[in-house]
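Q: I have 99 residues here and want to know how they pack in 3D. Can you give me a structure?
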Amino acid sequence: MADLKYYDVILAPIITEKSMSTMAEKKYAFSVNPDATKSQIKEAVEKMFAGTKVKSVNTLNVDGKTRRRGMTSGKTSAKKKAIVQLTADSAEIEIFSGL
């Protein structure tokens, strides 16, 4: 396992219609490093966004899709998603506000 710093764990927020609908329940979706663990993701969210307290973290590994170009086939890179549930008294994450 790689030695990841908290700023290397979260790669980007995932902004979709489904993830926006779960924001009312204080659930936020992020694209994370495939080597990151749940505890590393929790630590990264609490350090990167001031005033947040993480209640739970759910992760899912997304396999790469098979793509073809002529007779040659290959796969896109695999990804990892994290759905972070904040506590009721936690502050909201600023990057999602105003969307």
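Q: Anything worth noting?
A: The chain has a mean pLDDT of 92. The chain has three helices and six strands.
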